[in-house]
Each structure stands twice: as C-alpha cells, then as structure tokens.
Amino acid sequence: xxxxxxxxxxxxxxxxxxxxxxxxxxxxxxxxxxxxxxxxxxxxxxxxxxxxxxxxxxxxxxxxxxxxxxxxxxxxxxxxxxxxxxxxxxxxxxxxxxxxxxxxxxxxxxxxxxxxxxxxxxxxxxxxxxxxxxxxxxxxxxxxxxxxxxxxxxxxxxxxxxxxxxxxxxxxxxxxxxxxxxxxxxxxxxxxxxxxxxxxxxxxxxxxxxxxxxxxxxxxxxxxxxxxxxxxxxxxxxxxxxxxxxxxxxxxxxxxxxxxxxxxxxxxxxxxxxxxxxxxxxxxxxxxxxxxxxxxxxxxxxxxxxxxxxxxxxxxxxxxxxxxxxxxxxxxxxxxxxxxxxxxxxxxxxxxxxxxxxxxxxxxxxxxxxxxxxxxxxxxxxxxxxxxxxxxxxxxxxxxxxxxxxxxxxxxxxxxxxxxxxxxxxxxxxxxxxxxxxxxxxxxxxxxxxxxxxxxxxxxxxxxxxxxxxxxxxxxxxxxxxxxxxxxxxxxxxxxxxxxxxxxxxxxxxxxxxxxxxxxxxxxxxxxxxxxxxxxxxxxxxxxxxxxxxxxxxxxxxxxxxxxxxxxxxxxxxxxxxxxxxxxxxxxxxxxxxxxxxxxxxxxxxxxxxxxxxxxxxxxxxxxxxxxxxxxxxxxxxxxxxxxxxxxxxxxxxxxxxxxxxxxxxxxxxxxxxxxxxxxxxxxxxxxxxxxxxxxxxxxxxxxxxxxxxxxxxxxxxxxxxxxxxxxxxxxxxxxxx
Length: 738
Prior knowledge:
alpha+beta; 5 domains; Immunoglobulin-like; 29 helices; about 750 residues; single chain; disordered N terminus
C-alpha cells in the first residue's frame, strides 16, 4: 500500500487527514477511493454499514465488552452500534487519536488488539488474515474516514418462519440489507444470529446454519445495525399429522388455535364437563366460588345457549365490577402512601381512584376513554380519581417506564441510557416522554408545571417533548399530554389494543400470547401472532369494550377444554391444547377460604364481611393476604405466579392459623354442622360442592368414610373431619382454576 506521502498527492492533505468536516463527525476528506498496488480501484469502506456490523458481529460493542455502560479498558462504544457518530469520534479522535495510526496502518491499536498482536483483555477475536481484519485494515489505509454511502431501509431474513420435520434438522439463514436508494446486498456474514434458547437451537455462525435440537417452537434473533428480526423455527411435537376439522369451533379464536395445533401435530384434550366449566368461568369473571345451587341449575339446564346466558349474566354482576376493578387497580398500582420522602397518597385519594375505576367498569366505559382520562388527569386526588395516575410513581422517569408498560406493554426503560437494543425505541423517545411527564407535579393535588423539564443524558440539555417513534412536539407547547393520549389510544396504535387484550387473554387462559405481558417487542413474538392481531382489531372495532373481549374468550371452545392433558399433548405448555391450571389470585383465594369455612376475615378497619376483592388499597392491613402473596403494588405486579407458590404460603397452609383457626372456629360451617348432628358423609358432600363445585367421586367418598369410621369417639370424629376440611382447602384442585 502507498505511504501517507503518496496519498497526499491524490488530493489529501495532512490537515484533511487529521482535521474535521462540517456538519458531522470530524473525518478526513475522501474524494475518491485509493488505488491498490495493482492499479485497480478499491471499494471504499463504509464506516456505518461495514464497520459497525463488524464490531457487533465479533462482540466489541456488546454489553459485556466495550458497549457496557462504562465501557471496558477506557474504550467505550455505543451499545450495539446505536450511535455511529459517537463511536467514530471515540475510535478516531479520543486520546489524541492513538487508536488509529495513519502512517503505520498495521500498528493501529484498533487492529492489533483484536488480532492479538497486542495484549487485549477481550483476547483474540479476529485472525490477522481474516475478512474482518482485512476490512479494518483497508479502512485505516483509506484514511479512516467517516463514510456512509447509503441509508439502510430494511433487513430481510430468509427463512423467517420455517417448519422442520425432525430434531437435528438444519436450515441455512440468509440476511439481505435493502437501502433507501433501492440497492441491496447480502450481509449474512455480518449479521448476528442468536438463539433465544441455546440448548434448543445451535448456530454455526461461520456457515449461518441453525440446527434444532428439541421439538417445539424456537426463536432466533437476527441483528444487523439497528434492525432486529425474529426467526421462528419449529419441529412438530407429534410424529403423525392430525385432522382437527371436526373439533368444535365457536369463533376466530378456535380457528387460530386449531391451525397452530395442526401444524404442531397435537390433538387437543376433550371439552370440560359442565360443572368444571361453570366453576372456571364464575371464578374468572367474578372471583367467587359458585354456590351448589348455581352449579346444579347450570348442569340441569338443557338450553343450547346456556353458556352464553351464563357469561352474559356474570358480566352484568357487581361481583364482576369488584373483581376487575381490583385487577385494574393492581395494574395501575393503587395504594396509599405516607412517606415524608415521597409524594403523600392519602387513603381517601385511593378510594376515590378505585371508585372511578369501578364506575367506569359499571358503565361499560371504553378502555381508550379510561386511558385518555388517566393520561390527562389533574386536580385534587381526593376528588378527581384519574389524577391519582401521576402518584403511582415518584418521578417523571419512572412515570415513563410505568406508562409504557401499562398502556403499550413494552419495557422502554432500556432506552433511558441508550437506544433500545431489542426494539425500535430510542433515547429521544424515552426522554421525550419524560419531558412530557416532567411538566406534572405530584402530591395530593396533581397540576401542570410548564417550567418542568427533563435533561437528556446525551446532550446535557432539556429534552424535547416527543410522541415516541413519531414526532417531536412544538417547543412552545405547554402540555404534551393530550397529544400523547391521542397517540396512545389511537386505533392505529396496535401496541395499545394488543397490550390489553393480551392481559385479558393471560387472565382467562393462564398465559399471555406474548409473555411476559409487558414485554412486547419484535424479538419476543406472540405464540399466535395472527390471533393476537385479530383480538386487537376486534377489540378496537367493538369500542375498546373489555366485556366484549372477555366474552369472546369465554365463549371459545379452547377456553372450555379440559385441563387433563393427554399423553400426546402433555408437553404443551403454550399452545392451549388443554387448559392451563392457574393458581387463584391471593384475594380470590382468601375469599374462597372464607366461603368454604363460613368465617369471614377482617381487613384493616373495613366492615366485617368485606371481601378481599373489594379492597381498594393494597396498604390495608391483612395478614391473610400477606401470607397468600398479594402484591404491594409498589412496582409492577405482572408476571405469571410461580406454580408452587411462595414457601411461607405453603408453610401456613400446611400448619398455620390461616386455615386451622377458621376450621376450628365455633361459627365455622364444619362446627355448625357437627353441632347440628349432620352425618359425616353429608358434611363431606357439602364441603366438596362448595369448594370444588362438584360431588365427591365414589373413591373419594369411600376414602373419607373410612377415615371417619376409624374414630372411636366424638372428639376423634371431629378431628378427622377437621383434617378433611384442611385437606380440601390445601389441595391443588381447590387452590387453582382448572
């Protein structure tokens, strides 16, 4: 390669090599590509489109290396190349440009460290004569310019969805970059392919081959520059094709679920019996155990539309309002707070907020209208319910995280420090939202503070208010919340509708179509994307009506399936071939225990007989709810509960006052029946019907009859029946909806 003095003769000057250009990063001028020794023109290395992908491919700008928040070894790159201009300044000009040697190219630290010529904490990541080192060397030889010859428009991965026949099958991956000027090129070798579960999919980065090691659906994330694309590979769970054309179908929900099960070659379980379905839907929609009389009436009903009639009746009850007000209150983090270091939230303010939510549910107010009122709420929180939305967090930054999780189902917090590595959100988006919320004061009275501002960490200057992913708001605008509310609740904003219907689906079905439910992003695709799209469109088309979507789910055949898995679908944990057993929420379980034992619990200073699901404030004292694992609502309460429950809960249920004190209470159902001389078999039958919504099987009845028959005195007989009630309240069938 020609020495630097020869390059000066081709139009370069020493000043141009070391100086700055106007309007961008300081870069040597580069009027034409240098020539190689054989006289042929050499391609100009594009810093943004060639080097940034190289740094990502070999791991230089990842969070575990120089892309970490504080960098590594004094060298700090933007995470995954999110800020190429800043990276260029760091590489070429930081520390007097010591990382680049324009006269002795091969001595540049940017080349000698990754190739292992000079000691490098990250060890050798490039071979001296490999393609990566060649690209780096060529760029330095060209004068280390900041070049961007084209603007990336999109990245296409083929295949993006691929069905494979068997375990250990492989597929070749290809990445094609398309640019604004209409050109395209194969960038497979510079695209990072990473399996979501490395134990399920192995990837040969050199050949861009993916090999599936386990049956099921698996995700690979492909990354090139700021483009992040999910790839879905799946191997059927079954060996033989299944024909599900005769399975019951009540709506598009069943069509989509059965289509996926056919692809996976999984046959669904049978439908649940009437008593099981009745208990399930009553608990899901009202949070109550059905009475024996209600169960008997439903089972005996021969009407063809009895399911629809039941669902409609449940949706119209006060119990529905109580339960779903509690669930929305948990989502919105309703709680009183008396802390001199934080904004005071009075119990009266929480009651007002909860009453406003309940009133909206009772009237059937659209979810979009509720969200708009919350986002724009101001006033005295003890008088104006939605104003309490701004007291759910302590500052504008946390309000941004909270709002995007609740209404968009996305974790935008990553964009606080850098552009989101797994989604489209930028720092401008995050701090633009924070700037909107910075103009709101918190406390007993929520009001507008036009002088409020948020500092953008990249510039050190006040951030401009911004509708994320869309536009900056006018600088003279005093309050950006109306514009934000309009965007959030727009029919075109798919995040809003998808986030709430996904939560409704998780509540009714035990698992979100996107899981976790507050982590929507391209790299976390839905298990049934077409179903999620259709649910969201249907929700919008029906006026953002929560009851409408809940009814659609409750009326589907998939909701009514048995929870008993078959040998062929036992390994399915996300495709709804059988109903997922769900632990009862702490408040619902607490009320169920009260209903079965006949002994109400007392919650703080609330009147005796108040149900746990009716509590407006998570700060109301309750040992029972604490034992059962209620969320304190200081942060997000989302995420599927652990199937085994917390250890303290288990210990209390095994041998604690939570159950024992109520079972032995003189006013309990059991003790009342014993005093009345009720036959043991009738006591067993009645408790089964109340707790489980069914009669005991012949084997169960015989077992308990034998246990009681062993008693030689009234005290022993009473003790045996107390053990029976304890066993019933401790069993999985009682503590789950199934």
